[in-house]
Amino acid sequence: MKKLGVVFVMLLMTFSIYAQQINKDKNGVFLVVEVDLTKKEIYQKVNEWIAINYKSANDVIQLNTEDKVILKGNYLFQYQTFGEYERLIDFRLEHRLSISIKENKYKIDLIPLNTAYIDEELIKIHQFKNNTALVEPLYQIEMNKEDFDNPKLNPFIRAFKSTLDSEEDAIKYVADNPILFSYEGYRKNKRFFDLAINKYTFNSLKNYISNKSTDDDW
Questions:
Q1: Whole-model pTM?
Q2: Alpha carbon distance 40, 29 (integer Å)
Q3: pLDDT (tens digit, 9 = 90+) per residue, 87-129?
Q4: Residue 72: helix, strand or coil by DSSP?
């Protein structure tokens, strides 16, 4: 019975994780949610959620209209390394979050902007602090091992091509750092990343907007 329970939980997690889709520019993810609420009610709920989940709403909000709310924020996620230096690395992910609002539905857009190591020792070793190349492969469609092992298709090599001098440099960098860029690590870290963006954004916002009880019910 316990094993069945674990499988059921994992299935629920899988459905939850992959509810969002990659946007047309392939630089982030989005989710459209239909609700039995008016545009005005959704807008009110979005602003309440921001006030609850961010230390200073005024500092993070860049646009606030009844049609769209845009803010910049960051949250913690963990990245698993393997081999000799196996450990969990703490990262801060800076992102732009847009919530577009219509009658009875809203759209959440999340675009990663920068990443930053919290571990200063690792910053000295790997010089891509404030760079999305590490997380870019994690919100793309999951790749099988055969494609991952192909340098022309490897998601990390493709991501680092834009930040290093050449494709050859990107291939060498990924090959020289298997503790960060192994296939095993890629699959596990993709799940860490999905869980993080769901916990702090997609599921959090969905649950708050869908919750019909409020502090005004007294």
A1: 0.78
A2: 25
A3: 787 878 889 999 999 999 999 999 988 777 666 555 554 554 4
A4: strand
At 66 the three-state DSSP class reads: coil
Residues in the chain: 218
Burial of 17 (0-12, 13-18, 19+ CB in 10 A): middle
Structure-token match 């994690």, residue found: 138
Q: Where do we find the tokens 């050859």? A: 168
> CA dihedral defined by 197, 202, 204, 205, rounded to 10 degrees?
140
Q: Is the pLDDT of residue 61 over 80?
A: yes
Which residues neighbour 18 within 8 Å (Cβ) at sequence distance 6 or greater? 194
Query: Which tokens is 73 given?
Result: 């924020």
Q: 157 and 151 in contact (C-beta within 8 Å)?
A: yes
Say what the alpha-carbon torsion angle 214, 216, 217, 218 is, to the nearest 10 degrees: 140
Contact 96, 70 (CB under 8 A): yes
Tokens standing for 137? 């492969």
Residue with tokens 């990107």: 170
CA 136 to chain centroid: 9
